[in-house]
Fold:
Amino acid sequence: MREHDLARVAARNNAEWCDTFCRTHAVAGRFDDNAWWSAERTPPLYPDAVTLLPSVDGRSILSRIDAGPGCSIKDSFGDLDLRDEGFDVLFRAEWLCLERVRGAAPRWSAITSAEELATWEAAWGEAPEAPPFFRRALLVDETVTILGRYEGEGIEAGAIANRSTTAIGLSNVFAADGDLKSAYVGAASAAQAQWGSLPLVAYEFGDSLDAVRRAGFSTVGELAVWASR
Structure:
């Protein structure tokens, strides 16, 4: 695929993950050709809308959601300007893609029980509210696998993978030892071992971006997340 096509694939995959996660919190989003959005406020860390195509009308997106305090919009192509609507850019990031990862993923396995999921969430360590932030419904969703790398009985690295029609998305990737490159390689390998050779997509920014590039991912587009003032 060409880069702009991969950026669209990545945006759609990420929107599907947002929709799946929000539904486990009883928040039902909607899709159309241009965007995914939720009229109800989404859980912390998750956007209220995700654009799926370039050059979407920002005001049209805002008219579908609660655009008040706490609102955020994932501008998947970095081409919106919402400053006059009371929003500022929270961060800019890059869509990343890896066609095929080489090598196996020793000690990586899927989380399958509520107890393991609680251990995984504690190891991830970024839950913005009282647990569980990731609900057990995710464990029975065939489009999602929560992955952990074990050291003894503890989890030292992890990720969430979600499968859409044309890609596997990776998110919430972490490594207790700070070796994010190895975590991405391991999670990518484990996800493709489960679902086959679909391209892997993710987004990162800041210090994490270098680690993901060293893991073999290439930039295929830019995005921005806008937050209400």
User: Anything to note?
Assistant: The chain has two domains: 3-96, 98-218.
